[in-house]
Amino acid sequence: MPPTAALIDIGANLTHESFDADRDAVLQRARAAGVTRMVVTGACRAHSPKAAILAQTYPGELFATAGVHPHHASEYTDECDAEMRALHARPEVVAVGECGLDYFRDFSPRPAQRSAFERQLQLAADLAASGRPKPLFLHQRDAHEDFVAMMKNFDGRLGPAVVHCFTGTREELFACLDRDWHIGITGWLCDERRGTHLRELVKHIPANRLMIETDAPYLLPRTVKPAPSHRRNEPMYLAHIVEELARDRGESVETVAAATTATATAFFGLPAG
User: Fold this and answer.
1) Which residues pair with 96 in a beta bridge?
2) Residue 112 CB: number of other CB atoms within 10 A?
3) Cβ contacts of residue 143 below 8 Å, gap of 6+?
4) Is the separation of the CB atoms in 60 and 28 below 8 Å?
5) Residue 38 to residues 83, 121, 164, 219, 245: CA-CA distances in angstroms?
6) Distance CA 152, CA 159 (A)
7) 68, 74, 138, 229 — which has fewest CB within 10 A?
8) SS3 content of the chain, % helix, strand, coil (to 5)
9) DSSP state of 165
10) Contacts 24+ apart (CB under 8 A), 215-220
11) 217 preceded by cis ω (within 30°)?
12) Any idea what DSSP says for residue 179?
């Protein structure tokens, strides 16, 4: 049964081609599971406009981010920057990113990653300076020191930030919390091979700084029973993540659902759902 409070999935890659054949059905299953609003991740030059179009197609239910993930950093040209700035003039685009650093995969050279990240931080700073601040939707993996140093260069010039799909250490978590950043928790929590440390860490995240996400179609929670016959994650499984998170925090499902929804609504400036 879905929790009594409506849920918000703050990170779903619904423009992914795996959803092309049944996207409407995916949204219907999400609604049935209590997921009433979703933020569609824009993570590259091609998919950020698609995320905005999808959000425009489902007003009040879907919203979008626009940015370039570090994996695609080499595509962040002057022309790409202009395209991102145009997207951020649209009201359905509610956050800058997904942007950041990823030294685990290194799919783009690290200097290119740092350049693309800095340009997107500048974009966010310019939006704030113009009176149209938008929060940051951030990615960091195995790059904590450089990531924090680059964010520090923009101290006092940015809106709120969420470290999406947090998978880091205790030290990294508290460093993020000390800087007033929000934390996004995914089904990584449910992975007995690499996510068990999060079971303890999530107890320390203040309720007004905690948000939830599926990162669909990635990171299908490994504790879903019965196990699906496929590996594609969907927003419907956000309800399962809430159940696991509530157990680890020693709170009721309803408490976690209501708190994460209130936090996400305020963070992204969403209309009441």
Assistant:
1) 66, 136
2) 16
3) 100, 101, 102, 103, 104, 113
4) no
5) 23, 23, 14, 16, 19
6) 13
7) 229
8) 45, 15, 40
9) T
10) 215/11, 215/12, 215/13, 215/41, 215/164, 215/165, 215/186, 215/187, 216/9, 216/12, 216/13, 216/14, 216/16, 217/13, 217/16, 217/18, 217/19, 218/13, 219/165, 219/186, 219/187, 219/188, 219/191, 220/187
11) yes
12) T
Q: How many CA atoms lie within 13 A of 262 on its CB side?
A: 11
How confident is the model over 61-95, as pLDDT tens digits?
A: 999 999 999 999 999 999 999 999 999 999 999 99
Architecture per CATH, domain 7-268, reads as: Alpha-Beta Barrel (3.20)
Cα(181)–Cα(209) distance, rounded to whole angstroms? 7
Euclidean distance between CA atoms 267 and 182, whole angstroms: 9
Q: What is the pLDDT of residues 213-272, one digit of tens each?
A: 999 999 999 999 988 888 999 999 999 999 999 999 999 999 999 999 999 999 999 987
Tokens at residue 69, please? 């993930």
CA distance 63 to 89: 14
Dihedral of the alpha carbons of 97, 101, 71, 189, in degrees to the nearest 10: -80
pTM score of the predicted model: 0.96
Shortest CA distance to 214 belongs to which of 227, 229, 224? 224
